[in-house]
Amino acid sequence: MEKCEDRVSIEDLVKKYCLYFDTNQPEKIIELFTEDVLIDYGPEVPPLKSKAAALAMFTGGLDNLFAQTSHHLSNFILDFDSPESAHSTSYVYAWHRYHHKSEIGYLWGHYHHKFTYALGVWKISELKLFAVHIENFHREKMHPVARH
């Protein structure tokens, strides 16, 4: 039963990330992460290596770049590496309305996450974004989804 509860808690972290991003709540987003989180949004953005760096990026993007966003998550696959660590892959479709341009930006891709359990809670310790396709997106280069 514990593993089932852990699965729900972990999946909720990613869902909350999407919800808090879409509702412009960077102070809630940041609480989902470990202190030493590693966030990689693609080759055009230096990796974020702390909660402080992530909060600065979330706040700036949500206030200055995005007028509205809508992130849709599906196909969540989770594997446990140990009782205190897990990793997942999930699909994301993201819709972006920008402050500075009229075109809507679209992204179809994957999130890869790592999770850590400490002090009785699961947190996101790593997030990496991959793209299958982008249109009018605010970045030109993304990590490609691997095909075998």
Structure characterization notes:
The protein is α/β, with parallel strands linked by helices and 148 residues long. The protein has one domain (2-144): Nuclear Transport Factor 2, Chain: A. The chain contains 3 helices and 6 strands; from the N terminus they run ααβαβββββ. Strands 1, 2, 3, 4, 5 and 6 form a 6-stranded mixed beta sheet that branches. A hairpin with a 2-residue loop joins strand 2 and strand 3 (85-98). The N and C termini lie far apart (35 Å). The model has no long low-confidence stretch (mean pLDDT 95).
Q: Any key phrases for this structure?
A:
148 residues, Nuclear Transport Factor 2, Chain: A
Any idea how many domains? 1
CATH topology: Nuclear Transport Factor 2, Chain: A
Low-confidence stretches: none
The first-level CATH class name = Alpha Beta
Q: How is the main sheet built?
A: 6 strands, mixed
Described by the principal axes of the CA atoms, the overall outline is: globular
Could you estimate the helical fraction of the residues in percent? 25-40%
Percent strand equals over 45%
Rg (CA only) = 15 Å
CATH architecture: Roll
Treating each run of at least 4 consecutive H or I residues as one helix, how many helices?
Answer: 3
What's the number of extended β-strand segments?
Answer: 6
User: Helix/strand/pairing class, anyone?
Assistant: alpha/beta
Distance between the termini: 35 Å
Helices and strands, in N-to-C order?
HHEHEEEEE
Mean pLDDT: 95
